[in-house]
Amino acid sequence: MLPDHAHHFPGLTRIGALLADPGRAAMLWSLMDGTARPAGELTMIAGVSPSAASGHLARLTEGGLLAMEVSGRHRYYRIATPDIAAAIEALATLARASAPQREPERRPSAVPIDMRYARTCYDHLAGELAVRLFDSMLTRNWLTLAPNDSEKQGATPLDATPEGAQALTELGIDIKAQRARRRRFACTCIDWSERRPHLGGALGAAFLEACETHGWIEPTAKRRVLRVTPSGRQHFERFLNTP
């Protein structure tokens, strides 16, 4: 019998139970590149039997962490919302930060080297480059704390300043359209490898899309890993080193 106050927990035990199984955790982490994957592929990733995978996928879908899409006879699964993806990334950061370490280090050693500089965090930019760009956006007064909003899932809500809106518009981002989307306009997202915030939300996704459109960043054959092109390196270095 749970004590009375336990019934007021905001679903933490339910979410914790969903994430506690290694197979379900592996499925969720494999979907952090924003793609939808078939049940068969997720079964192999989890390393379980088809019947066990079916049960895991059903629990994750019923629990609201995954969304299912049907195409013909196939079922595809994806992370249900960008906010859930941000929460999973934050939990991964917390797990690494709280793990016992023999010697202090700047980054968790478990983060693959090729994922540290530039990668996707669901649908926005993550890694060392993302953190540095976010810091520069704050320094340039492009972003500010959003008024009359509350923190959700550990993310701090943000808004674009007039200067920031103009600069981002010049990059090809439709600020009005991003505000109209059915998700938070902008927020911080704690970076898995850097343990510091990068830009998330609809604006974060639009910023990554703009970088790809300009040819500064491109995907690679490895999931989530991004490549900064030569023109991208020149652009980002100018941006980061110019007040």
Could you outline the blueprint of secondary structure elements for this entry?
Elements: H1 12-20, H2 22-30, E1 37-38, H3 39-46, H4 50-62, E2 66-71, E3 74-79, H5 82-98, E4 119-121, E5 124-126, H6 128-139, E6 143-145, E7 158-160, H7 162-170, H8 175-180, E8 187-190, E9 197-200, H9 201-213, E10 217-219, E11 226-228, H10 230-241
Antiparallel strand pairs: 1-3, 2-3, 4-5, 6-7, 8-9, 10-11
Provide structural commentary:
The chain has a three-stranded antiparallel beta sheet. The chain contains ten helices and eleven strands. 44% of the residues lie in helices and 16% in strands. It has two domains: 9-80, Arc Repressor Mutant, subunit A (Orthogonal Bundle), CATH 1.10.10.10; 83-101 and 111-241, no CATH class.
What would the keywords be for this entry?
single chain, about 240 residues, alpha+beta, Arc Repressor Mutant, subunit A, 2 domains, 3-stranded antiparallel β-sheet, two-stranded antiparallel ribbon
* Count of the separate structural domains: 2
Helix content: 40-55%
Structural class: alpha+beta
Distance between the ends: 59 Å
Count of alpha/pi helices: 10
Largest sheet: spatial strand order: 1-3-2
Mass-distribution shape: globular
Radius of gyration: 19 Å
- The count of DSSP E runs of length 2 or more, i.e. the number of strands, is 11
Mean pLDDT: 85
Beta percentage is 15-25%
List the secondary-structure elements in sequence, H or E: HHEHHEEHEEHEEHHEEHEEH
